[in-house]
Design goal:
heterodimer, A: 179 residues, alpha+beta, Beta Polymerase, domain 2, five-stranded mixed sheet, 23% strand, B: 211 residues, alpha/beta, Rossmann fold, three-stranded parallel sheet, two-stranded parallel ribbon, 9% strand, globular
Chain lengths: 179, 211
């Protein structure tokens, strides 16, 4: 099982691989290979448990990354499978047929990033937000400060100190940061 | 601030919790007494109220962690006649402890309105004052006093139990002096408060007032 990355490369043609730690491997594949790969991992390798399903917004590349973290509960090690999907009209395969609890993660990603998982139950149903009427808040083009100015007015007189400028000023005056 | 003319009326046959404009909240029979006696009665009542603050056991944010040592052996708020109560119907102090999510705000409003008057709101921590470290979070409010009448703010991130005791002592002094009238302010400026609340809570599905 130590050559799991090689086996994935030979079978599914992985795009990149990375050994973060001895017990944490990462591999990137094309989106169309995700469902077969995850099925194969669950059926034929010790990586049987889906621990995390999360999304990353690579707005510069115009892509979302979906990260599936699988765990081998006996061997105490993990394997992250990452796949990128286009940011426009983002759609990905649902994995709730493999792990039923993925429904919740997919519902949350649907709400927070606007990625659609066709066939997954509870898509479009509010998970955390109530009455949200803006673009999904975890997208990086969501301007949270501008949103706050519109919805949550600041108390007059509040001062904001930019940490970088403040530390630079302190260091400039004292020549060192701490007494 | 634009005012909406929403009629906020109690259900048929019931009365609001408190007569408007009455800082000391006397009963029907007491209000017919001579002025000196009314003042004496109000002073006595307010002394009792200040020394029997019943706090609703509800924590909205991380500041609630400082309420545990306050209730237990080391700081023991029972010394001041304060106790935790499980429901809003038995409480007269609402502590908004730390950051308040927009989603929680709806529940807090509902709980506050269900509390019997006289009642007081304590804003605990920087988050209730100006948003604190969550000032740019899309999900938390920045100013509690736009939505609920706050009687006492306790600054800090987060304030230690000593600061809380100090804040509650200030609240008790205000109550004894008849100054802590946020609950009347809420009733008198209901339109303004409801306007602010409904502007933030877009899927408003509460009654206009939770009697």
């Amino acid at each position: 099982m130590d050559n799991i990355l090689d086996r994935i490369r030979d079978t599914f043609g992985s795009l990149w691989k990375h050994e973060q730690r001895a017990d944490l491997l990462q591999v990137g594949v094309e989106q169309r290979h995700v469902l077969p790969l995850l099925t194969w991992l669950k059926e034929h390798t010790p990586y049987i448990q889906l621990t995390h399903l999360s999304a990353v917004d690579w707005i510069e590349d115009g892509e979302f990354q979906l990260s599936y973290l699988l765990t081998d509960p006996v061997g105490r090690r993990s394997l992250m499978v990452a796949a990128r999907i286009p940011r426009e009209e983002a759609t990905a395969d649902s994995v709730h047929t493999l792990w039923p609890h993925a429904v919740t993660s997919e519902q949350e990603i649907n709400e927070m990033f606007g990625i659609h998982f066709p066939g997954s139950p509870r898509q479009g149903t509010p998970f955390i937000l109530e009455g949200w009427d803006d673009i999904p808040p975890m997208r990086r083009d969501f301007d949270t400060v501008e949103y706050m100015d519109r919805h949550h007015p600041s108390r007059p007189g509040r001062e904001h100190t930019d940490p970088r400028a403040y530390i630079g000023r302190v260091v400039g005056e004292k020549g060192f940061l701490h007494d | 601030m634009a005012k909406t003319n929403l009629p906020v009326l109690p259900p048929e046959g019931s009365r609001p919790h408190a007569p408007l404009g009455e800082g000391c909240f006397l009963g029907e029979t007491e209000r017919q007494q001579p002025l000196a006696l009314r003042e004496a009665l109000a002073t006595i009542k307010n002394w009792f109220r200040a020394n029997s603050l019943w706090v609703m056991a509800y924590g909205t944010g991380c500041g609630a962690i400082e309420l545990r040592p306050l209730t237990t052996a080391r700081f023991d708020m029972e010394r001041f006649g304060m106790a935790m109560r499980p429901t809003p119907r038995q409480s007269n102090v609402l502590i908004v402890s730390g950051y308040l999510a927009t989603k929680s705000l709806k529940r807090v409003i509902r709980s506050y309105e269900q509390m019997p008057s006289p009642k007081w709101v304590v804003g605990l921590g920087s988050c209730t004052i100006n948003g604190g470290m969550y000032w740019d979070s899309y999900n938390t409010i920045n100013r509690l006093d736009l939505y609920l009448p706050v009687d006492t703010y306790i600054a800090g991130c987060m304030p230690r139990p000593e600061a809380l005791i100090e804040g509650f002592k200030g609240l008790m002094d205000d109550i004894k002096a008849g100054r802590a009238n946020g609950w009347n302010h809420y009733l008198e400026n209901m339109d303004w408060y409801k306007d602010n609340q409904k502007r933030l809570i877009t899927d408003w599905d509460l009654p206009d007032y939770n009697w």
